[in-house]
Structures are given as C-alpha cells and as structure tokens.
User: What shape does this take?
Amino acid sequence: MGYRTKTYIAADWTGDKDAVDILYKWNESEKWGLSFSDAHEVTQANDNSLKCSIKASLKTRMDVSKTFVLIVGSGTKTLTNGSCRYCNSYNSYTKSCSRGHSVDYRSFIEYECDMAIKAGIKIVVLYNSIKVDKSRCIDAVKNIGVHAPMQKYKDGKYYWDYQSVKDAMDS
Assistant: This one.
C-alpha cells in the first residue's frame, strides 16, 4: 500500500450536499486555509454498479486516505443505501448473493465508518448543524475522533462556521 495522503469525505450526498459543497468551496478557494486532497479523485463508482462493486471502490479510496471526514445530518443514521438487501442480486429467500459474493447488510456510510476505524486513520465528524448531536451519528464513530458543528447561529441567522471546521480538521 502507498502513502496515505488523501481525505475521505462520507456523507448523505443528497440530504447534506450543501455541507459537502461548502467543504469543497473552502478547499478550492485561496481565501481559506482549509486544504485537503480528495480521495474521491482516486476512483469513481457508477451508481448503477452492484453494491459490492461500489464498496470495493470505496475501499480503494480509503486505502489512500489519512483522514476520514463524516458529515452528519438529520438522516445520516437512517441511510440504507449500500445494503445488499437492496441489490438485484440478493436472494431474500436464501439470504445470499446470486453472484456468489458475500452479503453485507451495512449501508455505504456504515461501511465507510467501519473501514476508517479498521484503517486506524484520523476521524473527524462534522455535524450539518449548530450543535454536536451524537444521537444522529453512526454508532461506530459516535465516541471516536473529533466532533464539531459546521454551523453557527448569530444575529438571528445561520452561518457556516469555517473556524469550527478548520479547527476540527487540523486537530
């Protein structure tokens, strides 16, 4: 295995896309000091691929990552996409894969959290909220790593909290 130089971002890419987008905006801007090399540049997976093929692609990304960033939103803990039970090759009667692959009931996000722990890399959990609410976090990383809110409330408005995110990622 090569050097671990990348940052792996895991999130509900539909429900928390705004939070993912702000991380990339801060990373790409010369104005901000947040800087990371994205693990998603390593390999791509097609959304129509088998769940196990996508998980293999996720593992390839994790293998080059030194930091795992999980963005937690309101629906993170209830995500089910990635579980073999939703794959067309899964036989619910025999509880097996018709292609001979092992069966994994974890969602993609649960799988990613487990991989990060197994890899022993730095874990940063960012909440798409003004507060850290560990009841919304994936159980595997609930009490691991650095946890921080991504937003703040000031003068009656919600704002992205760059400093909170930067401090968490730099810790």
About this structure: The mean pLDDT is 91. The first strand starts at residue 6 and ends at 10. The chain has one domain: 6-76+108-170. DSSP finds four helices and eight strands in the chain.
